[in-house]
Amino acid sequence: MCGIAGLFLKDKSLEPQLGALLATMLSPLSDRGPDSAGFAVYGADMPGAVKLTLRLPAGSDSGALLARLEKAGATPLKHAIHDTHVVVTLAAGDEKAARAEIAKDQNVSLVGAGRRMELYKEVGRPDSVAQRFGLAQMAGTHAIGHTRMATESAVTTNGAHPFTTGPDQCLVHNGSLSNHNAVRRELIREGLTFATENDSEVAAGYMTWKLRQGASLAEAMESALDALDGFYTFVIGTESGFGVLRDPIACKPAVMAETDRFVAFGTEFRALVDLPGIDGAKVWEPEPARVYFWERA
Amino acid sequence: MPEVDLAVTPLRELNAALHKLKPDTNETSWRVLNPRGQHAIAAGLDAPILVTVEGHAGYYCAGMNKQATVVINGNAGQGVAENMMSGQVHVKGDASQAAGATGCGGLLVIDGNASARCGISMKGIDIVVKGSVGHLSAFMAQAGNLVVLGDAGEALGDSIYEARLYVRGSVKSLGADCIEKEMRDEHKAELRRLLDAAGVDGAADVSEFRRYGSARKLYHFHIDNAGSY
After folding, report:
1. A246, A268, A290, B129, B196 from B112: Cα distances, Å
2. So what's the pLDDT on residue B18?
3. Domain ranges of chain B
4. Chain B residues near residue A253 by CB distance under 8 angstroms
5. Does A170 participate in catalysis according to the annotation?
6. B111 CA to chain A: closest CA distance, Å?
7. Is residue B224 pLDDT above 80, yes or no?
8. Which domains does chain A have, with CATH numbers?
9. Contact pairs from chain A to chain B, CB under 8 Å
10. Which residue in A2, A50, A207, A220 is the catalytic one?
């Protein structure tokens, strides 16, 4: 099962509602993925700065972490607390020092990084996860979300989607990969590290590896068609938009909708019914083994 | 004419009301508003009624249909009219995967495209798709007719038994044991009947279609293949 929602806004006037709209998309997908949820929101950037999304153990004090970062020479320019996650904005030049400091503390996880991407995920019913993080109040240009029903690995926060694939990039997956152990071993030999036994993390790792070798995102997605075996619909978020790829057999459902104001992806049409003007939208099923991409000009 | 708004009425209530109808009911025309992609709308009907769904339906709409006519003024999700026994289902938009799967009878008409596995394991249903069908359509199709006015995707009719496939456009590839066959007069007459029933009228000429069916080499045991088992 699992459910995916993706929303790319064309109409700037909808940007303040991005999170609220994504929340209406995730809620009906709870039936497909009740055990955990996550989402990446592409919000405002700050020139010359980078955003790190960090996860702390529930109830711990983010103030101490912020103080340690400052002491390490990575002074947070601003920060925002969302339940167990804190988004820290730093001068881009301080990112390396911040990452080194974060790596020292095994209780703190770096969930995602980028100029615009903020990434949140937790175990729990999707509605309650969205509420805890305050999704409905978030603004931005585009967002992708996921509701998980675990099949290949344990129900843990690290096993929840999205998985980050690089700065401002993340991947969500509906399906199950059958060759993930073999691909993981190959990627480990190539120097990648993995936090879980999860199959989708391998797909994210594969994309990271291809991009690192200089492939464009479209090329990386094309080559995933050959490298990854199993069932999948991937939605991949980037700084400027999102991409969609279904496996050639296309067992996993997918539907898209487009109007003058937005492009939306949903595992089921039920995820799209509360979007503004959906009744007049062009609604279609993306073709198998074809890379789709929507980007801001 | 009963009108049921699924934004207000729970879907189970609608389906229960439809299931309760007697064969001689006077409530023969129903309108369903705000389907909002819900699953199994108007599934399991067994009365000569008309149900019109005003919008996009979710999975298994009009599944297991007997006698009824179900019209969907929108797209249909996976498995529309799956296992239909009789009656008619008309999708005015596109249909998702496995449209008409395992259907035993009746007529399924899709005005738009149908995606993968249209008519998978069909057992006597007639399906007319005015657009194109996706890969593995009519997989293991046993009986009935699949008519496609557009194109067919990869592996059409893979492991087909005795269903008949008529395609006007291109076929990306034929599946195992599926071959092109001669269009004899009986096939042209059958195809004309199906096109008329689907309301295609004169817009399509039967001579534009090609017929595909089983080479009958796969489903009979053949001693030369003993090593494959």
Report:
1. 21, 19, 20, 7, 17
2. 98
3. 1-75, 97-221
4. 77-78, 96-97
5. no
6. 14
7. no
8. 3-39+124-295 (3.60.20.10), 45-115 (3.30.70.260)
9. 46
10. A2
Q: Do B37 and A269 touch (CB under 8 A)?
A: yes
Alpha carbon dihedral A18, A24, A27, A33, in 10-degree steps, equals -50
Task: Give the chain A residue whose CA is nearest to the CA of B114.
Answer: A285
Give residue B150's region: left, alpha or beta (phi > 0; psi -120 to 50): beta
| Nearest by CB: B135 against A253, A255, A288 | A288
- Report d(CA B145, CA B107) in Å as an integer: 9
**Closest chain A residue to B155, measured at CA:** A249
Cβ-contact A283, B92 below 8 angstroms = no
Beta-bridge partner residues of B46: B66
Helix or strand holding residue A190 (H, E):
none
In angstroms, the CA A63 to CA A70 distance is: 11
- Which helix (H) or strand (E) segment holds residue B14: the answer is helix B11-20
CA distance A257 to B122: 30
Q: Give B170: exposed, middle or buried? Use CB within 10 Å, 0-12, 13-18, 19+.
A: exposed
Q: In this model, does residue B161 exceed pLDDT 80?
A: yes
Instruction: Kindly give the pairing relationship between strand A241-246 and strand A255-258.
Output: unpaired
* Nearest one of B36, B79, B6, B10 to A266, comparing CA atoms: B36
pLDDT in tens, B52-87: 999 999 999 999 999 999 999 999 999 999 999 999
Q: Cα separation of A257 and A71, whole Å?
A: 48
- Predicted-complex ipTM score: 0.89
The shortest CB-CB distance from A253 to any of B55, B78, B93 is to: B78
Residue linked to tokens 């269903």: B163
- Contact residues, chain A, for B99 at CB < 8 Å: none
Residue pLDDT, tens place only, B180-223: 999 999 999 999 999 999 999 777 899 999 999 999 988 777 77
